[in-house]
Amino acid sequence: MRRFVILILIVLCISNNTEIYAETDTHELEEVTVTGTRTERKTEETPAGVAVVSEEDIKNTRMLNVKNALSGIAGVSVESRSGGYDSRLIIRGAGLKARYGIREIMILMDGVPITDPDGMTRLDFVDTELIKGIDVVKGPNSTLYGANAAGGVINIITRSPFEEAKSIRIGYGSENTQDYNLVYGTSIDKKTFFTVSGSRRSTDSWRAWNQFSTNQGTLKVGHIFDDTTTVEGAISYTKADLQLPGSLTKKQFEEDITQRTTDIWRNMGRYSEILFTNLKVEKEIGDITLKPIVYFQTWEHYHPVTGLINDGGANVIGTDLQADYKHRVFSMDGVLTSGVTTQIDRAKGEKYTYKDIVTSSKGRIQYSTSDEKGALAES
C-alpha cells in the first residue's frame, strides 16, 4: 500500500515590539513555542491552545516515561494500564478510539513526525533522558501538520547535538523494573558536535502477561559551517516489546486484579523495531531563513491480536521544506512562513494463525498458549 500526502502551508505572524524594563536582576523567562504556528512565539500570542512543558519542569519531574511529563496538563488525559508503557493519550476528547497507544494526535520529535503510518503512536519510542521540553497544541491542526493531527499535536524537543551532555542513570524498582541510561555529548572541534545515548527499560509489571522492554540507541551530529548555516543529522534505533494482558470480568477483577485473562486469545502484544533518520539544514539568506528537513523511517511490527497475528511494517520517506521571511507590515515586525510537506509510505504485511493453541475434542479452539505465528492465514 502506498500513500502520498502533500501539505502546503502559509502563515502570517505579526507581533508588536514591546520594550520590557526589569526593576530587579531576577528575570522570569516567558514560555515560547514553535509548534503552534511553526514559528517561535510566546505562548500567550499563539492563536491556538498551547501548553509548554519546560526544561525546568522536566528536571523536576520523576520521569520514567513521557506520560509522567504530560500528566496534569489541562485538557490532556493520559491513561495507562501498565505504568505508562501502553499509554492512551486524549486531548479534548480526541484519541478515545484507541484502546491503547495514540491515535488522531500527531506526535513529533524535534519537528519530525514519529507517528506510525497506520496512524498510531507509542510513547515508549522516545528516550526520556534526551527530552528538554514538550509543546502540546490542543485541537485540530491538520492545516499545519496533516491528517494525523486532527485532535492535536505534541512536539517532543530533545537535546541539541550542539549542547554538552554527560549523564548516567541506573534505576531499579518493584516488579523487577529496571532503567539504564547513558548520554554523552561533546565537540570534536569548534564547529562539529555530537551526542550519543543508549538506554534500556524493562518491567515484569504487576499483571500476568504484561512484560515490557525497550532498547534504544541514538546518535546526533551537528556542524556549524558559518554564522548563517548549520546542519544536524540524527539516527535512532528502538526495539520495543509490549505484552497486552487482556480484560477481566468483574468477578475476576474483584478476586485477583493481577491475574491473567481467560479470553481465548490470551497472548496478545505489540513487538516493534523502528529506525529513524533525519537531516536538517538551517540557512539564512538576508531576511529569509530556509529550514529543509528530510527524514526516513523503517517500521517492523509483530502484532498478535484477536484470532490472528499481524506481521508487517512500512518504509516512510518525507520532507518538510519551510521558509521564513522577516518583514515589516504597517510599521510592525512580521514573519511570513511558507512550506511544503510531503510523505510517502510503503506498507507491507501478512496475517498468520496462532501456532500454539489448545483445542477441544471437537476441534474447537479453547485458548492460545504462545504468541508464535503458525500458518499463513487465508485471505
UniProtKB/TrEMBL annotation:
Residues 43-153 form the TonB-dependent receptor plug domain. Pfam families: Plug. Keywords: Cell outer membrane, Membrane, Receptor, Signal, Transmembrane, Transmembrane beta strand, Transport. It comes from the Bacteria. One of its GO terms (cellular component) is cell outer membrane. One of its GO terms (molecular function) is siderophore uptake transmembrane transporter activity. The keyword Signal applies. Residues 1-22 form the signal peptide. It is found in: Cell outer membrane. GO terms for biological process: siderophore transmembrane transport. It is a multi-pass membrane protein. Its main location: membrane. Belongs to the TonB-dependent receptor family. PANTHER family: HEMOGLOBIN AND HEMOGLOBIN-HAPTOGLOBIN-BINDING PROTEIN 1-RELATED, TONB-DEPENDENT OUTER MEMBRANE RECEPTOR. This is TonB-dependent receptor, plug domain protein.
